[in-house]
Predict the 3D structure of the following.
Amino acid sequence: MDASTTPHRPSPATRGAPPRVLTALIATLALLGGCALPLDPEDSLERIRGGELLVGATEHLPWVDLSGERPAGPEVDLVEDYAGRAEADVVWVLGSEGELVRQLRDGEIDLIIGGFDDQTPWEKEAAVTRPYATSADGTGRVLLTRQGENGFLFDLESFLVEREEAAGASR
Amino acid sequence: MNAAFGRAELPAEQREALARARRIQYLWLGILLVTVLAMAAVMGNSQAMKTAWAEDLLSFLPPLAFLIGARVATRTPTSAFPFGFHRAVGVGHLVSGVALAGVGLMLIYDGASSLIMQERPPIGAVSVFGHPVWLGWLMIAVALASCVAPVILGRMKRRLAEQLHDKVLRADADMNRADWMTGAATAAGVAGIGVGWWWADAAAALLISVSITKDGWENVRDAIRDLTDARATTVDNSRPHPIIAQLNAAILQDPKVVAVQTRARDEGHVLHAEVFIQVSEPVVEVAWLEDLRRRSVQMDWRVQDLVIAVTAEPHPDADAAYGGPEQDGPEQAAES
């Protein structure tokens, strides 16, 4: 600040400087930490990136449409967008909700789509994501991931947050 | 404000302590309210976070019990309540002890069931100004921030509890200890989840729950002891209240008194003391007795409610002091 007026007392200048350095350091650490944490107990995200994303799908029009040759619908597109970002190939597993949730709990699949609303009773068995859209009746639409795999959950939800932002900016 | 607990006028030190304790408790209730609301806002699926929140709700009980108890205890005795309203403190102590024990048991149950059921708390991303941030960071920040007030205020309360002889305030200081320990455990547990240890949260909660339950149990036990007329103790219930021995010693100074036994029970802030004396003369004057009582009452603000009875035989159960060179017990007295 005024180091020139008080050359023998460097305290004002140095007192001004370290906080800025510290702030930058903390911000960097937080960013690094923000990227590195959280980690998965079962390393889901590590396996998915550049590998396969195992997605359970159960039909729920209009969100998930399984009548065609390939799964279709907005939730299918959403998952494929995410898979593109994670450089993963989507492997579809079809089944009833109950079957899929059991597979999810056992770690046989990573994710379930099926037009679940944010009040889904499966929240005890699966981790519920933030809503990616609001349906006409006002409930949020969510995806189910394996409980405790917070690295994957965080990555997926980060994708959802960024998508919301992009949608908000383009509007 | 009120300068007396019933008919017991407060010395300046205690008057100041009481006013301070009231201010601290109002401040603490405000902080608690903010904490509970903040916790509710960021509460994710962390078990420890939910428990910490439920625990904060229970933390309302001791400060409320103190404020109500300290107010009720200031009422002057009536013919319907001839002993005054001091026991309001004992009731508040019991309520606080139960709340504290409840917190501890709740932590044990939640931590243990999470571990046994292998519940894996999902903690995902939140949007902070459009940027995804791991909710765990916010949870850690809130949990650590919630530690600050209980650490500082808890220390102050413990000291004031001593000055006021207020066991509710002391139980509340124990509750504050539980509060900051839970905050620290939550922060550690969520950080543990961050590095992939799904069990960290529950394990941290379980770790601290044992000492919190112990604090709660001790407060319940001490409150019940005091309410069932156990011998008055120091504010931490660790030893008999020194005023009992002091009264005995002072009364024994009177040349007419051969032996003295005092039994005192904890009424709350104050003690109710009954002093039994045996004298060397067959007749005593009312004026002498009254003077002895006045001198005894002046020894401590806590013993305003003091009865002296002249009896032929020593009281078998009250704490006794005997004349002669040794004052430890009847054996020595008999030998000398």
Chain B has a mean pLDDT of 88. Chain B has two domains: 4-227, 242-335.
